[in-house]
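Hi Y.,

Following your request, here is the sequence exactly as I used it, all 325 residues.
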Amino acid sequence: QHMVRITRLFFISKFETTIKEWNQRFGDALRKEVFFSLPQNALELGKWVVEKEVENILPFQNLLSESISESKDLPIILNKFKEYISKPQDSIFVNCQELGAFVGLLSKSRGKKIEVGNLNVGELQVVIKSLNTLLREKRNLPVTDISYSQAVSFCSNKTAWAHENGFLPDGLIYRLPTEAEWEYACRAGNLGVAGLGDGESLSGMNANINGGRAGNLIGRTDYLINRKKLISIDPNKPKFEPNSWGIHDMHGNIMEWCYDFYGYYSKDEISIDPIGPIRGTKRVLRGGSFLRPAQSARSAARESLEPSWRGSEIGFRVVLGYPLR
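Below is the corresponding structure, written out as tokens. Let me know if you'd prefer a different format.
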């Protein structure tokens, strides 16, 4: 058993870093996008828009021309609608910027009381609301395919911005958690296999893991749940209950980079504020993921990868604290 004492003050994010947060920090330079299929109501409206684009409906054509001049993404999604009409398929795939531009067009038409898709104002509002919900869900997915170096760059960028704008006192920085800090926050005082409930159960019921087989679970095996996808982060309506300190998704969803080089634990009886070896070839990841069983998402489970590695199950969360070295 490896005993650790944490004496350094730190604050860990309640949630994993999202695509929205990443793009706010880096803009177009390192933009992350997720592509997804459009629901049927959006497809039907898109078909209507591109079909009416060539007709002599002056108010609508003026609105469309104005919107196209204001958004570089609107012509892209309109071309996808045209291709959908010429080559019928189940759906089309768009990203958040493209769908956002289309929703903007619909919102303008509603505001100017210009008919779209033969829908009345109330019906159009329902469609706009559903598409905005879809946008929020996709933008608030955890950011993935992130290397260790990119995660560190995000923290450095956030720190510089916060200092420049007077949001952080001197000496404090944003950074990745140490492995010890991560496990301390994950357990939240719980000495069981997980930092949730009584600490003895981990399944698709309380975490986004691969819980599709009884052998993939720890504790109760009443329900076999494997969602096979990332869960969006909604601070107002989280999918899963947090641990007793209010921290969410420390088990499953994505594996999270930690500060430390991977190495054997210290042989000291108690390690105080450990920060890992001074050098190494791999960095630590913690938390398991939506692709992995409960055993990989235990509070004590460790993974390691080269810092350049990026994958669909790899992301991070941020700590506010003091520099480590």
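The first helix runs from residue 19 to 26.

Thanks again,
Q.
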